Amino acid sequence: MVKVRFAPSPTGYLHIGGARTALFNWLYAKSQQGQFILRIEDTDLERSKKEYEDEILFSMKWLGMDWDELHYQSKRFDLYRAKAAQLVSEGKAYQENGATLLKTTKQEIKIFDLIRGEITFDTTNFISLKEDGTPFFNAQGEPVLKDEVLIKHDGSPAYNFCCVIDDSAMEITHVIRGEDHISNTPKQILMYQALGLKPPKFAHLPLIMGEDGGRLSKRTGAVAVSDYRKMGFLPEAIVNYLMLLGWSPGNNQEIIELLSAVKNFSIKKVNKAAAVFSMEKLTWINGEYIKKKDPKALAELIKPFLDEAGINYKDKAPALLAQVVKLYQKRIPTLKDFIPRAGYVFYDEISIPLELKEKYLTADKKPAFNLLSENIKILSDFNAKTAEETFREIVKDLNIDSAELVHPVRIALTASEVGPGLFETMEMLGKNLTVKRLQQAI
RNA sequence: GGCCCCAUCGUCUAGCCUGGUCCAGGACACAUGGUUCUCAGCCAUGGAACACCGGUUCAAAUCCGGUUGGGGCUACCA
Q1: Does the predicted interface ipTM exceed a cut of 0.85?
Q2: pLDDT at A215
Q3: A245-275 b/e with 16+ CB inside 10 Å = b?
Q4: From CA A190, how far away is CA A139, in angstroms rounded?
Q5: Å from A236 (CA) to B56 (C1')?
């Protein structure tokens, strides 16, 4: 049975690149009816933090990636030390300054990468360098091979060693990780050999880069999954976008159901070249998912953002929020965009920018505004349809172009030049607010 | 520097394995037009790429070699 793992280090929040690695592992496991395990690599006791660990677990769940097992390397130190001691007793490793090192043997190491094919390394290139960058030479004048640290001088195990022991102990069949680990692979193979263990299969994913072509960093944009959540991105949109980075279902589809991705996923079809992370495309995908959402469900997702902004939607009619959301869901690419665009519905008072006032709410509009508010006031059945009828009548009577009144009225009602249809906006605001804002406008 | 990986529109990619169906398809972004009370949306249209050089072949985006360019690693971090 296929068994894969995602092994984050809790020295920071779940990185968008880490999430992609996790996703491809998860996708592969699901597509093979295999298992996906999570291994917290917290061997660096100094830098590992509980809050990071909690956040990683939370983000994994939020993205919808469930795991079959959860392990902590910090609880497995005894095992690592025992294995290191075993290698020492077998003469394959030795101790020096309190650390345990594996003797590197001269050989050619071939790994078969599921994505890249055969990769060959020559351990004679693994040279021990002095501080000035020049190699140490032995008595024969050959460069000295660099031995791999298994256990550090402080007794804590080194990354590559833990990784090998755990992947083997946890019966990992496929190691799917970032390209930055390619050069760790031969070192790990050396360890598998020394321990007499069979290495798993490897697949190295292309890296994700920032818009500047360099490493994805905070400087070039958000890197933590939690940041994207706070920016109003939907987990399914992030997952959808991430799987498009380095993989394609091959049928020109961009919006992909997770289930169909699981069905079509093939590790061999993963791209070899690094991909640039595009905020624009992520945003577009997010908008697509927002458009597809049921307005009520979408309203629930927007509530935390309203709460955070201190917007009171609870005193309004219970159905109002969903109604507003429905009107806006085609025009908000992220959840966060809702407030600046639709917030006016929930405020008692709106403040209209001076330049809009001067441009649209001029004194000559006063009669039309009065007429409109008076006629609306006496409507017994106020909705988009009756509001429009009332409006059209006035425009006709006054013999003006409807645009001449539409725009000023929109400003008066929403404090914005843009928005959904004016009459739907009126219905949403309700008769009282509509009348009140019309009267106060000029 | 050394070792390793990579190279199709600005970006993500399809095609490459199994050469001809590709004067290279889709998406984002951009531009133009249509719809409309504005914006968004939607619809239509457009510009935009096989890094370069050489080889193999009747035929190369596709196979091979080199060059250039980009990236990764080079820690008793993970």
Answers
A1: yes
A2: 82
A3: bbbbbeeeeeebebeebbebbebeebeeeeb
A4: 25
A5: 48
User: Per residue in A408-420, pLDDT tens?
Assistant: 999 999 999 999 9
Q: What are A322-332's pLDDT values in tens digits? A: 999 999 999 99
> Two tokens at A36?
């996906």
Tokens of A171: 């019966």
Nucleotide with minimal C1' distance from the CA of A331 is B40
Query: What is the per-residue pLDDT across A35-55, written as a single tens digit (0 to 9) for each?
Result: 999 999 999 988 999 999 999
CA-atom Rg of chain A in angstroms: 31
- What confidence tens digit (pLDDT) does each residue in A345-369 have? 999 889 999 999 888 898 888 999 9
Nucleotide B23 C1' to residue A115 CA (A): 32
> Which nucleotides of strand B come closer than 7 angstroms to any CB of the protein?
1-8, 10-15, 25-29, 36-41, 70-78
pLDDT attached to residue A190: 98
pLDDT digits (tens, 9 = 90+) for A163-210: 999 999 999 999 999 999 999 999 999 999 999 999 999 999 999 999
What per-residue confidence (pLDDT) applies to A130? 81
Q: Which nucleotide is nearest to A419 if distance is taken from CA to C1'?
A: B39
